[in-house]
Amino acid sequence: MGKKRERLEVIKDILESVRASRNIKPTRLLYASNLSPQMFKEYVNELITKGFIKLEVDNNDKKNFLITKKGNDFLQEYKVIENFIENFGL
Amino acid sequence: MDFYAFIIENKEILKILYGLIISIICFFIVLRTDRMFRLSLHQGIRYFRNAFFFYGLGFLARYIFGTPLLTSYFNSNYFLVTKIFLEFFLTMAGFFLLYSLVWKKFEISGENYFSSLLNPPILIFYLLAIMIISLDNLWGGYFFMFSSQIIIFLFASAISIVNYTKNGSRHKFLKFYFLAMILSLIAWILNSLAALLTEWDQIILINISGINIILFLLFLFGVIYVTRVK
Prior knowledge:
The structure holds 2 protein chains of 2 kinds. By secondary structure, chain A is α+β, with helices and mostly antiparallel strands. Chain A has a single domain (about 5-85), classed as Orthogonal Bundle (Arc Repressor Mutant, subunit A). In chain A, about 60% of the residues lie in helices and about 15% in strands. Chain A is built from 4 helices and 3 strands, in the order αβααββα. The longest helix of chain A has 19 residues, at about 70-85. Chain B is mostly helical. In chain B, helix 5 packs parallel to helix 7, helix 6 crosses helix 7 (about 145-165) and helix 8 (about 175-195) runs antiparallel to helix 9. The relative contact order of chain B is 0.10. The interface between A and B is medium-sized, with 19 and 29 residues.
């Protein structure tokens, strides 16, 4: 069994999936995130609240997630933050 | 002129300079880590940032607001107030630094307190800090603050050597972090000896200031080195 992913790593994985697809349906993102539906909902709500992703509903009532500028900034800084956490033992 | 004699002769102005240097280093570390915390909401970064926030305030309280150049203008209560603030800020900084290393054992991952200065685990630190200050003021001196800081840095040194032996080959700064913890421990032990055995021997105090500058520069170097964009 693989090592449990850290919270920050889960967020990075979700954001990378959204960025890779440019816009992605909730069901596809759930599969890509490899999380339980309950955990997925919690993470997605958190990411929306923080302004990392946004949910758009089109004319046909179809929902899609899009990455925001803040989400892109986070991905760019993720490596730096991860490096900092590991080097300072936080 | 002898190096130590020069420092002792100009100690008041050098103390202000010393306080300013360390406060500026802390300010820079707080700014850099605050940006990382706001992006990641990582609690360890948050507590590490708070530690340097309190160190910055502590050194400002002691060496800028507590300088005899200022305290001589006010009555003795002013000096007492700066002493209380110094103790409070340094004690809280030590607690935050240690807690930044162990927070995962006490908080559920993903749990985000609205405030890192007012949440249940931190309230315990405030309570302990107030107790330490009260006891020191009751007894007169710094015995309880020194003892608490020595215990804190003993634990922090033990944790950081475990981190270093586990991950030191992959993360180069862990060995400097361990070194910084050992230097902090030495500085607090020397401080206690200077206060309890030598009635604040000036030469020991100068050496402690030197150690403090080295360890804060070490943290500054770490923050710049580790967070540089490649």
